[in-house]
Amino acid sequence: MARKTKIAKAPKAKAQKRPKSQVKADDAALPVPDEKRPRKKIKNKTYEAELARLQIELVKLQEWIKHEGLKVVAIFEGRDAAGKGGTIKRITQSLNPRICRVVALGTPTERDKTQWYFQRYVPHLPAAGEMVLFDRSWYNRAGVERVMGFCTDEEYREFLRSCPEFERMLVRSGIIVIKYWFSVSDDEQERRFQSRLLDPTKRWKLSPMDLESHKRWMEYSKAKDELFAHTDIKQAPWYVVDADVKKLARLNCISHLLSMIPYKDLTPKPIRLPPRQQQRGYVRPPITDQTFVPEKKY
User: Fold this and answer.
1) How far apart are CA 276 and CA 31, in angstroms?
2) Where are the alpha helices (DSSP H) in the chain?
3) Domain 43-260 annotated CATH 3.40.50.10090
4) Beta strand 130-135 pairing with 100-103
5) Distance between CA 95 and CA 61 in Å, rounded?
6) pLDDT tens-digit profile of 167-204?
7) In whole angstroms, how large is the CA radius of gyration of the chain?
8) Which of 79, 83, 56 is nearest to 246 (CA)?
9) How far apart are CA 94 and CA 115, in angstroms?
10) Can you name the residues that pair with 178 across neighbouring β-strands?
């Protein structure tokens, strides 16, 4: 009998590992259609319960920051309508504004434009016992200013060179720098823009700049990829938040923020109210002497 000849199988090609910067990169450069991108959901009851638990932990973190004299900077960046503002609101909702404050700077003035670029942000950095949340930050230069042509090529290149050194300097000075990038797909951003157009209470959020950024999706994607390539440093890495589902993004971001700073529970012991002073010889003025806000019937 003729012997069967074995056909040698070609060796399987090994899957190449993606570079770290590419793994961390936003999926915005190649947006995934909604029908292919699984939509995660969370029940309102579950969300409210978990948010309440996390906000209690944020209060504990606040007390620890104050007690230890820590200096914390949290940067929130990402595309328009990605959910940065909503997350910041949930973080600060139960915190003391003297300890945890939000910085959201407007358009730079003519005077600001003549300063060292980072100069307008430096006065807002935290002192001991403070946490500052930047709702957009010095990364405007690598995002909107780059795409819209508000800075020169030389100013942009200088930012990419100096930003990592600036952040390393902050870390060396004792400031904890935490950077979040909120990633949202093009279809989800479109839905949120349409929602803002229909809601009178949210329409103010759509500025002419937002509409222009909506048109320049791919240019923003390229700018973001280059930003990550230069500023995703060991001392202050970028953490990407999948923001297609707002409620999940809020919970995930807050949970991660809590994990970044080891803290202890310094909740004070239960407080007993002292007895109220007795009204001896005090006579209230007539109630008619006061001007009250009219009460409407609803």
Assistant:
1) 63
2) 20-24, 44-68, 84-92, 110-113, 144-148, 153-172, 186-198, 208-215, 217-231, 246-260
3) no
4) parallel
5) 10
6) 999 999 999 999 999 999 988 888 888 888 888 888 77
7) 26
8) 83
9) 36
10) 74
How is residue 53 written in tokens? 């638990």
For the record, the structure tokens of 13 come out as: 């090609």
- Tokens (6 digits) for 258: 């809590």
Residue 11 pLDDT > 50:
no
Residue located via tokens 């969300």: 47
pLDDT tens, position by position, 165-174 = 999 999 999 9
In whole angstroms, what is the distance from residue 147 CA to residue 80 CA? 14
- The domain locations on the chain are 43-260
Residue with tokens 């995934």: 32
**Residue 57 one-letter amino acid:** E
> One-letter amino acid identity for 15?
A
pLDDT in tens, 103-138: 999 999 999 999 999 999 999 999 999 999 999 999
Q: Which of 81, 83, 155 is nearest to 113 (CA)?
A: 155
Query: What is this structure's pTM?
Result: 0.82
- Kindly provide the b/e burial profile for residues 198-231, where b requires at least 16 CB atoms within 10 angstroms of the residue's own CB: eeeeeeeebeeebeebbeeeeebbebbeebbeeb
